[in-house]
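Notes on consecutive records. When two proteins share a document, each keeps its own sequence and its own token line. Never mix them. Below: protein one.
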Amino acid sequence: MQINLPLALSSIDQVLENYMGLQKRAHYIINTYRHPSSLNVLTKYWMRFWMRFAGVGFFGRMAARFAALPAPPHKSRPYLAHMNSRGYIAPSVTIYHSDLRLGKNIFMDERVVIFQREDAGPIEIGERVYIYRDTILETGHGGYLKIGDDSSIHPRCQVNAYVAPVEIGSGVMIAPNCAFYSYDHGVLPDKPIRKQPVQSKGAIIIEDEAWIGFGTIVLSGVRIGRGAVVGAGSVVTRDIPDGAIALGNPARVVKMRADMTCDPMAEFM
């Protein structure tokens, strides 16, 4: 593969100018060929061409940006991740972690942050995992984070695996604005809270196929069972059994999915 040395050594302003010119040409093509069948062929060719070069590095991120130019925004973009085994990592993703392990075909949306503190354990993300914009994943103080295949974390979530691990199973759906903290601050009266060591009641474990509702907070030492549902706005401080539906602050089991009828309308009659 030959490297265009003058372009590689050009200034940032020149790179941005080239990018803006390419962006204008892409939009020109899209606006010129308005027929749905033509647009479909052109956009697919464009996206597949650039996604061949997508990856974690600088040039891989730029290729991902070019690929996304004609693509619809937000939840219409994860399919780009299936055009390359390295997946789709948006250019604005911040990765500051020395032990990040990525599975195939992952999707990281705009402004996702991957961060490590001192003594951080690894972050392991399985295959076909979708992490949407403004989500922050952190490890530190011996904690690690593991996310299983086919799970999704929606916008503005915070996962802090400090002291103890956070393990998220496969097929887990996490709604926006959720927070997971596997640690807490000491609150003894003899010194300021900010100077006290962090502590934990144990790992956070979310089993396969669970569904965590909007704005849920999950604290340390909690297991959420396989196929469980946690209602929006809940604070989870104790274990939730497999197949349970729980909600409230603190979250309490209100129903078991096994007791529900297969007719969804029957619940409202």
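Protein two starts on the next line and is unrelated to protein one.
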Amino acid sequence: MKVVNIVNNYKEKELAIIDLPDTQPLKNEIKVKVVKVPLTTGDVAMMNMGSKKQKVVGQFYSGEVVSLGRDVKEYKVGDRVCGMHKSGTLSEYINISNKSVIHRIPDEISYEASVALLFGGSAALYFLKKTLNQKRKLWILINGASGEVGLIALQLMKTYGHHVTAVSRTEKFAILEKYGADRCIDYTQEKIEKYLDQYDVVFDAVGKLNVNREVAHMSKNSEFITTHVGLDLIGSIVKNWIFGRVKIKMGIAGFKKSDIETLFSLYSVGGIKEVIDNRFELKEINKALDRVKSGSKVGTVIIDL
């Protein structure tokens, strides 16, 4: 079977397609023929941070169940499923635990739509779930609003009735407005700091803002949420916790089966939609990688297997 492998050259990590022997599922595993995989900024981050021993890539998938371990009772051959795997979903077949984050795909949702929602949608829910459920209308600024996390976050916020400002580049304003942005700011033309005191929540969906700089411009009792994780944030978090000015939240997104259920429910009633930037065949995997690294994509890059 064909598997995408990480290759370490003298400049940077690349991806290569190799052939490996097919394997059968263990007693508590489900074998899935993979149909669609999103190549995400999370995959790129894992490639950059991973050791030289790390050989596989891909965390999310959608596909068809083709065989079952003897102890698996809750799924059947032919089921359409999607979910998260620890790594290595860029493969023709994967064996996954029946205890992993896996969900049947409803009939009205395609393989592509299901997998396009997973990374961005689950991450957005992880960081913003408490914000979504606020009873009063909030003013929210999303930095990196045109990415896979930012676009789902934008749609979620609008579905729940909040006011959203999207930060990106001018050429992306049309699609941001299509998905509900009340206001757009081009970060290459304006400094967002002069507007930050207007917002209840600032969500840095790409983890690139300078926390100390931005928090200094925010109103008391507002909240700064970032996908960035680092020791450099500890001082800011402690300082703002002591003086009670701005709440700061960071973390590594967790993925739950209940989040997939929430996303599918919202999708079914038109609350959110998938946004596809580009589709690539498996043989074009390094073109896809370049697209994800470019910083120019809008939505999700999909690999067709």
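For the record: The first strand starts at residue 2 and ends at 8.
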